[in-house]
Fold:
Amino acid sequence: MDALFTLFAHPLLTAAGLLGLVALIFYRRTLRLFGFVIVPDDSIGTVTKNFVLFGRHRELPPGRIVALYGEAGLQADTLAPGLHLGLWPWQYEIELVKFTVIPDDAVGIVEACDGLPMPDGRVLARHVDCDHFQDARAFLAAGERGLQMTVVPPGAWRINTLLFTVHLERMTVIEPGRIGIVEARDGKPLAGGRVIGRSVPCDSFQDARAFMAGGGERGPQMTVIPQGKYRINPRFFKVVQVPVTDVPDNKVGIVTTREGTSLTTGEIAGPEVPGHNVFQEPQAFVNAGGTKGLQEQVLLAGRYFINPMFATVEIIDMTEVPIASVGVVVAFVGKAGVDVTGEGFRHANMVRKGEKGVWVDVLDPGKYAINTYTHKVRVVPTANVVLNWATGKTEAHRLDANLSTITVRSADGFTFNLDVSQIIHIPRNDAPKVIARFGSMEALVTQVLEPTIGNYFRNAAQNSDVIDFLKKRSERQAEAKAAIAVALKAYDVGAVETLIGDIVPPAELMKTLTDRKLAEQEKVTFTTQMEAQGVRQQLEQATALARTQAQVVDAERKVAIAEFSAQAAVKTADGAARSKKITAEADAEVTRVTGQAEAGRTLAIGEAEAEVIRQKIDSMESGNYAVVQVAQALAGAGVQLVPEVVVGGGQGAGQGGTLVDVLLAGLVKDRFDKPTRPQVEVVEAS
Structure:
């Protein structure tokens, strides 16, 4: 407090103190008044000289903007961090400028406002060693004004902003799965006929000086930039990212180049050349003599860094030869081939693999990486192939898609439709012959099979009427098989089988045949019904017989018993008769002995009785008469000979039981039986 009162007590001392305090606070401005300049550690001082009073470098040379020798104007030299003297404020304008800082992910694009003029045709100034534009004097000694090809890398730089304008540009980043296609805005003009600049070693276009020194050409560049980060001058090189070329599995890449020598007259594709890493090194391809245009070589499955400005790639399927087939190769490229078919085949030429033409060696089932623009593979089935001449019907191979039902005319003038199926077979080693002659299986069908088979059946139909054709279908089919086999053998095609399918006669003829057939079937139906009625009648008779079978059996047994009884009675009567005869003979002998008169009398009586008996026998037969006599004898004895009910049987000779026998037995029974006995019931068996 005492010191403060002392200062206020001495005004001069107070003024000096305040002046010192102000000078301390504004020391930079204070020092600037005395020609002192303090430049911070992170800055530089750019100098503008207002005037020069004397000396030979008072004014800038014509066309110059930045002074090198102290002339009035913008000064090339800058003030580095620190204290600088003699820079009076009335003569020098000092501007403190921060260091030029380039971030890690950027580059600095420099444009100079002074320097030598660029030559005609150039768009970027050439490289000058000037410590990344920090040495303005070195730059102005040989540098050119305008955009500079050299970039400023990441870092802090003391660059004179009065001479150089620095623009920040992001680094060129090529993403994974992509490549960078470069187009140069400066360099030598492309040579005549060239469409893409040749490859120049320049550290992936990061070294513009090397690009220019190596003779780099303006325009699209052969070299591509792979994945990564690059310090490329975007004002010099335009970089466009494109996807890499990926060829999937079971695919191939067809390549067409835009650079190289011209194709030889008559060729459609360039031959394969070595050493270009599958079109990934365009300069090596050109140096090896590769041609522009379609390439015979193909890309297999994989990833490729191919410059689309140099070559385009078309992805197609691999060529597949199915099972039970072979592939016949037709080559459009290669050296001229020599025919290997010999004298036995004069329809076309076949050559060996690698030569131009139809290859005699076939491709077996499998997948092949074939350029379909330079080689065609015709698939020929070696299994049996069925072709249908039937409208609306086709097989999976579609070879018969255009075939239709055959229309023929018979000898009797009727038109009718005929479906035919032809089975053919082409041997493996004959497949190239078929393709060499016809070009494809479709052509074989349309040029040979369709007319051959169609005309055969048209001719065959004219030799018979419709009905005969229908009746002899199997014969017609066998004849067709033999004739067609002979015809197709001349074309190296085997005829396995010829089958006649649906035959559609005219509607009016079919109606007549149908009516006739219906009538025949009705006749058969009526006959069958008649037979059924006969069988039914027999069935009814058998059923009735079965129902009375028990009664029949019982009656038959009774008849048999009666017969045996009658026979026994006959035997008994016969024995009695014989006994009486013997007695009579004895009596006769006695009588004869006793007297002739009595014998004569007896003889007369016996003859009379015999005559009566003979007449009775004549009236009813001897057998019946004997039976009656026996029955009378038995009836007189009270023996029942006839059953209550008698059923007659068959007519066998020598056997009883007939209807007459029954009737006679009934008469005898009625005569000797009493009136109260049951009546005899006669049942005739059918």
Observations:
- Residues 645-656, 676-686 have pLDDT under 50 and may be disordered.
